[in-house]
Design brief:
The protein is mainly beta. 8% of the residues lie in helices and 41% in strands. The strands form two sheets. A seven-stranded antiparallel beta sheet has the order 2-1-7-8-9-6-3, covered by helices on one side. It has a two-stranded antiparallel ribbon with strand order 4-5. The longest helix is centred in the middle third of the chain and has 11 residues, at 71-81. The relative contact order is 0.26.
Length: 133
Amino acid sequence: MPEVSTYDPKKVTVSIGGRVITGFAADGVVTLTHNEDAVTPSVGAKGDVAYSENANNSGNAALPLMSTSSSLAYLREICAKRRPVRFSVSDVDADAIQVSEENCRILKMPDTPRSKDPTTVTVNVYIPDLNYR
């Protein structure tokens, strides 16, 4: 029998600076990415392998928002003030994850598109220590 699973994006909550972010685009809710590999392998002349552990555990969160999202004004304000904030993701789906880190920063001012139809504005948040709980 094939494996069947269910994912509900309504069970994923993203908050920045204590405020729940709303107005996500159809692209998804959040993509969490580590900035570097966890290890660097080195292979010797005879094929022996040694791993160097990487201490850089920083990451990035990409938030695809609709250009009409009311959260964009708040995120632009945080970016303009260059404020470090708490970034949190809570996912209570079957494959649940929790991320909550202090001193995160919005990497650049979110775009301000003005077009016929709403578009996607991706907001990137730098996370100094990306740990899943």
